[in-house]
Specification:
- This protein is an alpha/beta fold.
- The chain has one domain: 5'-nuclease (Rossmann fold), CATH 3.40.50.
- The chain is built from six helices and five strands.
- Strands 3-2-1-4-5 form a five-stranded parallel beta sheet.
- The chain is globular, with a radius of gyration of 15 Å.
- The protein starts with a strand and ends with a strand.
């Protein structure tokens, strides 16, 4: 039974494209998969650095066209959550990549879990961010 909404991190998307069983299972169990704009930016950057840009763009377009997949833009509320998270991380002494703070802010705003391999998301739990670590 599908029971949760997930926000996909860049590394989880890459693992999905490689056929990673745990990622496939988690996404099959999701009622909705949110793709933050920062993840799209990272993917487009990665595609340009590789040799299969056209193929990767086609695959991404197909993924984004699925009824359960939704691209989410940043809002003013996202910016407020970003500030809260970044400030808390600075005070706790745990640096995290900027794009991951934006991803966390969007997940917090939408009350969803982040599907990721990045364990530094656990440092953001102090702000209420939830991650499904693979």
């Amino acid at each position: 039974m599908k029971k949760r909404r997930l926000m996909i991190d860049t590394n989880a998307y890459s693992a999905l494209m490689s056929g990673h069983d745990d990622v496939i299972a988690a996404l099959n169990d999701a009622i909705e998969v949110l793709v933050p704009i920062a993840v799209l930016g990272e993917l487009h950057d990665g595609f340009r650095g590789g040799t299969k840009m056209v193929e990767n763009l086609k695959t991404l377009k197909s993924f984004l066209a699925k009824p359960s997949v939704k691209v989410v833009d940043a809002t003013q509320a996202t910016a407020e959550r970003y500030g809260e998270i970044k400030s808390a991380l600075s005070k706790s002494g745990h640096p995290v990549p900027i794009n991951d703070i934006w991803i966390a802010a969007q997940a917090l705003e939408r009350n969803v879990d982040i599907l990721t391999f990045d364990h530094h998301f656990r440092f953001m739990e102090i702000c209420g961010v939830r991650a499904v670590l693979l």
